[in-house]
Design brief:
By secondary structure, the chain is α+β, with helices and mostly antiparallel strands. It has two domains: about 70 residues, no CATH class; about 100 residues, no CATH class. It is about 25% helix and about 20% strand. The strands form two sheets. Strands 3-4-5-6-7 form a five-stranded antiparallel β-sheet. It has a two-stranded antiparallel ribbon with strand order 1-2. The longest helix has 14 residues.
């Protein structure tokens, strides 16, 4: 089944309208939304629509290339941390000048999920690496959280102890949340 770009856009717009995003105002706590047509530079790609809050600066963008970053809807406080995590993908084996393992994609992905969940606390985190390829989010003297890419978070926080907890990428484990909130 082939769906035209117009039909897909109409479906998306209808979905947004039903969610009470369209026609909202800052008076009722929701941002008004505008829809802008953006054409990708991929040869087989169909035009797609970029949804942006009205208060956000809207820039013209008709293609995505290595020189021009994709247009993002809103800048979030965790974006600089996410950018640092993304840059880890460019490191190779021996990044430390010796025999350190290349950071694993799964560890980077888990740390990125965690960074998105942090919100404002992301500004307190610093990205570091372990020689085994795992990614560490360091919160200074407070503690750290380490991701190996195995669905677990290894944490150590001053005054809260240390341990290993499951991490599914959707919620910050209780033990870590409590330590970060203090």
């Amino acid at each position: 089944m082939t769906v035209s770009s117009e039909a897909a856009a109409a479906y998306l717009w209808g979905h947004l309208a039903s969610a009470e995003l369209v026609g909202s105002s800052s008076a009722n706590g929701r941002l008004p939304v505008v829809c802008e047509l953006v054409t990708r530079s991929y040869s087989a790609a169909i035009p797609w629509r970029q949804i942006l809050p009205v208060q956000q600066e809207i820039r013209d963008q008709t293609s995505v290339s290595a020189e021009q970053a994709p247009l993002w809807a809103l800048e979030r406080i965790e974006d600089p941390l996410l950018a640092q995590l993304h840059e880890l993908r460019d490191l190779d084996e021996g990044w430390d000048g010796e025999e350190a393992a290349k950071p694993t994609d799964d560890a980077i992905r888990e740390a990125s999920y965690f960074a998105r969940l942090l919100g404002g606390a992301a500004s307190d985190a610093e990205v570091t690496l372990h020689v085994d390829g795992s990614v560490i989010l360091d919160f200074g003297d407070a503690g750290s959280v380490r991701f190996k890419g195995d669905g677990q978070a290894i944490y150590a926080f001053e005054g809260f102890g240390h341990g290993i907890v499951p991490f599914d990428g959707f919620i910050v484990p209780r033990e870590i949340r409590v330590a970060l909130e203090s």
